[in-house]
Amino acid sequence: MKKASVTIKDVSARCGLSVSTVSKALNGYSDISEETRRLVLQTATDIGYHPNAVARTLKTNRSYNLGVLFEEESGQGLTHHFFASVLDSFKRESEKRGYDITFINRNIGGRGMSYLEHCRYRNVDGVCVVCAGYEDPGLHELVHSDLPCVTIDFTFGCCSCVANRNREGAAQLTRHAISMGHERIAFIHGHPSEVTSQRIEGWRGALREAGLPDPPAEYLQPAAYANPKSAFEAMKRLMALPQPPTCVLAPDDHAALGVLNAAEDLGLKVPDDISVGGYDGIRLTQLLTPRMTTIHQPTAEIGRTAADELINQLESDEEPTPRVFSIPGSLIKGESIGPAKG
Question: Structure pTM?
Answer without folding.
Answer: 0.79
